Protein backbone atom coordinates (compact mmCIF):
# COMPACT_ATOMS: atom_id res chain seq x y z
CA UNK A 1 0.00 0.00 0.00
CA UNK A 2 1.38 3.40 -0.91
CA UNK A 3 1.00 6.55 1.13
CA UNK A 4 1.23 10.21 0.18
CA UNK A 5 3.16 12.67 2.30
CA UNK A 6 2.02 16.31 2.28
CA UNK A 7 3.45 19.31 4.06
CA UNK A 8 1.69 22.61 4.63
CA UNK A 9 3.59 25.82 5.28
CA UNK A 10 1.73 28.87 6.51
CA UNK A 11 3.26 32.33 6.87
CA UNK A 12 1.32 35.10 8.59
CA UNK A 13 1.51 38.83 7.85
CA UNK A 14 4.22 39.28 10.50
CA UNK A 15 6.37 36.56 8.92
CA UNK A 16 5.78 33.84 11.53
CA UNK A 17 5.74 30.33 10.08
CA UNK A 18 3.59 27.36 11.01
CA UNK A 19 4.05 23.91 9.56
CA UNK A 20 1.89 20.78 9.37
CA UNK A 21 2.58 17.32 7.98
CA UNK A 22 -0.09 14.94 6.68
CA UNK A 23 0.13 11.33 5.54
CA UNK A 24 -2.75 10.00 3.48
CA UNK A 25 -3.78 6.71 1.91
CA UNK A 26 -5.83 8.50 -0.74
CA UNK A 27 -6.79 12.06 -1.47
CA UNK A 28 -9.97 13.76 -2.50
CA UNK A 29 -12.35 16.51 -1.43
CA UNK A 30 -12.96 14.94 2.02
CA UNK A 31 -9.24 14.62 2.73
CA UNK A 32 -8.52 18.21 1.68
CA UNK A 33 -11.45 19.48 3.71
CA UNK A 34 -9.97 17.86 6.83
CA UNK A 35 -6.53 19.30 6.00
CA UNK A 36 -7.98 22.82 5.74
CA UNK A 37 -10.29 22.52 8.72
CA UNK A 38 -7.40 21.61 11.05
CA UNK A 39 -5.56 24.97 10.74
CA UNK A 40 -8.90 26.81 10.81
CA UNK A 41 -9.70 25.14 14.14
CA UNK A 42 -6.23 26.20 15.38
CA UNK A 43 -7.05 29.85 14.74
CA UNK A 44 -6.09 30.55 11.12
CA UNK A 45 -8.94 32.74 9.99
CA UNK A 46 -8.10 33.37 6.34
CA UNK A 47 -5.96 32.13 3.49
CA UNK A 48 -4.90 34.85 1.10
CA UNK A 49 -3.01 32.70 -1.43
CA UNK A 50 -2.92 28.92 -1.78
CA UNK A 51 -0.35 27.38 -4.12
CA UNK A 52 -1.52 23.91 -5.11
CA UNK A 53 -0.39 21.26 -7.55
CA UNK A 54 -3.75 20.71 -9.23
CA UNK A 55 -5.04 18.33 -6.57
CA UNK A 56 -8.60 17.39 -7.46
CA UNK A 57 -11.10 18.79 -4.98
CA UNK A 58 -8.64 21.16 -3.32
CA UNK A 59 -9.96 24.51 -4.64
CA UNK A 60 -13.53 23.56 -3.65
CA UNK A 61 -12.36 22.54 -0.17
CA UNK A 62 -10.50 25.85 0.29
CA UNK A 63 -13.61 27.80 -0.70
CA UNK A 64 -15.78 25.90 1.76
CA UNK A 65 -13.53 26.73 4.75
CA UNK A 66 -12.04 30.14 3.89
CA UNK A 67 -13.52 33.19 2.18
CA UNK A 68 -12.40 33.85 -1.39
CA UNK A 69 -8.71 32.88 -1.36
CA UNK A 70 -6.55 33.19 -4.46
CA UNK A 71 -5.68 29.70 -5.67
CA UNK A 72 -2.51 29.51 -7.75
CA UNK A 73 -1.73 26.32 -9.64
CA UNK A 74 1.88 25.35 -9.29
What does this protein look like?
- This protein has helices spanning 29-41, 58-65; strands at residues 4-11, 17-24, 49-52, 70-73.
- The protein has two helices and four strands, in the order E-E-H-E-H-E.
- Helix 1 runs parallel beside helix 2 (58-65).
- The mean pLDDT is 81.
Q: How many beta-strand segments?
A: 4
Choose one word for the global shape.
globular
C-alpha Rg, in Å? Answer: 12 Å
In whole angstroms, the N-to-C terminal distance is 27 Å
- Total of helices: 2
Order of helices and strands: EEHEHE
Beta-strand residue percentage: 25-35%
Global structural class: alpha+beta
Strand arrangement in the largest pleated sheet: 1-2
- Describe the largest sheet: 2 strands, antiparallel
Catalogue the unreliable spans. Answer: none
Tell me the helix content. 25-40%
Q: What's the short story on this structure?
A:
28% of the residues lie in helices and 32% in strands. By secondary structure, it is of the alpha+beta class.
Strand and helix layout:
Layout: E1 4-11, E2 17-24, H1 29-41, E3 49-52, H2 58-65, E4 70-73
Parallel strand pairs: 3-4
Antiparallel strand pairs: 1-2
Keywords:
74 residues; alpha+beta; two-stranded antiparallel ribbon; 28% helix
